[in-house]
Amino acid sequence: MHLKRLSFVPDYEKQEYPYGLPLFKETLTLSFDAPVTILAGENGSGKSTLLEAIAEHSGLIRIASADDDDINDEIRRFSRQLKLSWSAKTKKGFYLKADDFMTYARNVTRMRAEAAKRLEEVEDEYRDKSILARQLAASPYHKTIGEIEELYGRGLDNRSHGERFLAFFQSRFRPNGFYLLDEPESPLSPMKQLSLISMLLEMIKEGSQFIIATHSPILMAFPDAVIYSLDDLPLKSIQYDDLEHVRITREFLNSPERYLKHL
């Protein structure tokens, strides 16, 4: 594990977001004793806030956030109050919110299109100049297109949303990395969620660590993951079968009419 421990001491004088969340109204201690840690809990329990604060504190790249202003000022200040203990801090990895992925995919497509357009303009502008001058002018745009194609082939737009999501992970996961994933199940079918688990298992063999906020009982079942339910305070690890998400999903699948008749 890269990140071993997180601790937070509340500021009782502050009631605004995120200090007003129940999770941050008391001393918080989290130990990361497994390559995969699952953060479960209802909407508004603080899962995304905690992940974003860890990402900000540790300096992780945020996928789809080219502008530093995208980081909420409150989160930036809050992150400084976290204490993180590392065994071996790595520069490899990223923080990804599933909601940001479409923005990222559009940015990649736009960058490739702009580079291709500039190549056409260079050909026109340098028509009467030397081959060397034309090659030098075109070089940055060839490099941009080459890097995108090396990562994603012909691009991310040629696939379904879920396939693009998995292709992104396949291309960007690196050994010995530290990854924060916020609801990665959002664009994925149950079968594709199993494919993601398979990818994560391979990356764990190569020294990577993952902290995942999720509502998915499939991802919560990750082998040997440590699970924290942010609905149950003070925070402690919980068994898979004791999770409310798992219990309700299981009961619904066994008898959907039992739930639907009351709606």
Quick one: how many beta strands? 8
Oligomer: single chain
**What is the distance, rounded to the nearest whole angstrom, between the alpha carbons of the first and last residues?**
45 Å
Report the sheet with the most strands, covering strand number, pairing sense and barrel closure: 5 strands, parallel
Using the alpha-carbon principal axes, give the shape. Answer: globular
Structural class, please? alpha/beta
Question: pLDDT average, as an integer?
Answer: 86
Count of alpha/pi helices: 9
The level of helicity is 40-55%
- Per DSSP, what share of the residues sits in E-state strands of 2 or more residues? 5-15%
Spatial strand arrangement across the major sheet: 5-6-7-3-8
Order of helices and strands: EEEHHEEHHHEHEHEHH
The radius of gyration computed from the alpha-carbon positions, rounded to a whole number of angstroms, is 22 Å
Q: pLDDT under 50 segments (min length 5)?
A: none
Describe this structure as you would to a colleague.
- By secondary structure, the chain is an alpha/beta fold.
- Helix content is 43%, strand content 15%.
- The chain has nine helices and eight strands.
- The chain has helices at residues 47-58, 73-79, 101-125, 131-152, 161-172, 190-205, 217-220, 244-254, 256-260; strands at residues 3-8, 28-31, 36-40, 82-86, 93-97, 178-182, 209-213, 226-229.
- The strands form two sheets. It has a five-stranded parallel β-sheet, sandwiched between helices.
- Strand 6 (178-182), helix 6 (190-205) and strand 7 form a beta-alpha-beta unit.
- The longest helix is centred in the middle third of the chain and has 25 residues, at 101-125.
- The chain is globular.
- The N and C termini lie far apart (45 Å).
- The mean pLDDT is 86.
